[in-house]
Specification:
Helix content is 37%, strand content 23%. The protein is of the alpha/beta class.
Length: 380
């Protein structure tokens, strides 16, 4: 950990950027002046980004079929990308889905095991999130214990079965390619999807039971891709208080009105809309809906989205940055980070004031990423 005082930089406070020194000691922000100082004129210091949901790590763990023999190296590479984008706390969202392959149970078991074994050797705070398909009822009985084994405290439920086509007896789109990617016979894959669809009537009761058990263990729960107010109300009654990426205005407004945490996608902001034609994250934010912005599938997007919201006048810089720092920290119940304040973790992001490129990232007082110019200032 660095014990150092940064001088000359603009530091993001509660309302705006402030020209003031910032001291770090023993992994925390402190008011005590430090004997060592580094001149950061020309830079701005922001709270580190807390990414409440991201799956961009997948490309590092399995870039090609069979290419990655050890997930540990993949996680090291993923952390390098996270740090280079100013992310100091990262929730890695891993599927367990009927889709199989990289979203299968066996792969997830390896991912969560690797996170447990390698996270203590990295600087970025890596946390796992289980994304569970709701129709995998055979897994429910053992799931609470498995989550404990994996060290997980966060689960998100989603249902990606193509129910409309299955109900009509039609073959789902892209089914053959999906089956082959998972290493399954297409006929077997289709039969499995049909069987899962056929047990839809049993899913609500099974979810009621599972959510009750998980809530009793203090597990945080979320739903993914909500479309209706009624659907969100059902999840809320189960104690599922996070609404990830609601697809419609109705669902998003209902979640916010019910006091749920609404998580939106940063790529949605950067693109100017959803790539699937869902409700615009910018529109929701303008309406005051949204507790946090997540990277979703693109780690550079939280930083870019925050500045786009500030530059366009939708929010002030402090308000926009809160959506990628303090807001997601609150969603995760992490009161020790998300803002630059005395006693908080020294999770900091140093940006070039002109280009806004990441120059240094610090998590818990340790450097996870540093460019040449900043490094030169440290050794002067």
């Amino acid at each position: 950990m660095l014990n150092v005082e940064f001088t000359g930089a603009q530091v993001l406070g509660a309302q705006t950027l402030e020209a003031r020194p910032l001291a770090v000691s023993e992994g925390r922000i402190t008011e005590t002046p430090q004997p060592a100082s580094v001149d950061l004129r020309g830079y701005i210091i922001m709270p580190g980004i807390v990414d409440v949901h991201g799956d961009g790590f997948e490309r590092h763990l399995a870039p090609r079929r069979g290419a990655m023999k050890t997930m540990h190296e993949g996680l090291v590479a993923a952390e390098a990308e996270l740090a280079a984008n100013g992310i100091t706390t990262a929730v890695l969202a891993q599927f367990i889905s009927w889709e199989g392959g990289l979203r299968g149970y066996e792969f997830a078991d390896q991912v969560f095991g690797a996170i447990q074994s390698v996270s203590d050797t990295l600087v970025t705070d890596l946390r796992g999130q289980l994304r569970l398909e709701t129709h995998l009822l055979d897994l429910f009985a053992d799931l609470p214990e498995r989550m404990a084994d994996w060290g997980l405290s966060y689960i998100v439920f989603n249902d990606h079965l193509p129910h409309d086509r299955l109900a009509k007896g039609q073959v789902p789109k892209r089914m053959v390619g999906q089956a082959l990617k998972a290493g399954r016979n297409p006929d077997d894959h289709l039969r499995m999807m049909q069987d899962l669809h056929a047990q839809s009537a049993d899913v609500p009761g099974a979810l009621d039971w599972l959510c009750k058990v998980l809530a009793g263990r203090g597990i945080q729960m979320g739903s993914h891709d909500d479309t209706t107010a009624d659907g969100r109300a059902v999840w809320r009654r189960r104690g599922v208080r996070v609404a990830e990426f609601p697809e419609t205005l109705e669902a998003a407004e209902a979640a916010a009105a019910g006091g749920d945490h609404v998580v939106l996608g940063s790529p949605n902001v950067v693109r100017g809309g959803s790539h699937n034609g869902n409700v615009s994250a910018v529109d929701l934010i303008t309406m005051g809906v949204g507790a946090a912005l997540a990277s979703d599938y693109h780690y550079p997007s939280p930083r870019r989205a925050a500045f786009m919201l500030a530059d366009s006048g939708v929010l002030s810089l402090a308000q926009a940055w809160h959506l990628v720092s303090g807001g997601p920290a609150a969603v995760l119940g992490l009161s020790d980070r998300g803002e630059i304040a005395t006693g908080k973790r020294a999770d900091l992001l140093v940006l070039d004031a002109q280009t806004r490129r990441v120059a240094m990232t610090m998590a818990g007082g340790r450097v996870s990423y540093m460019t040449g110019d900043i490094a030169a200032r440290f050794v002067r």
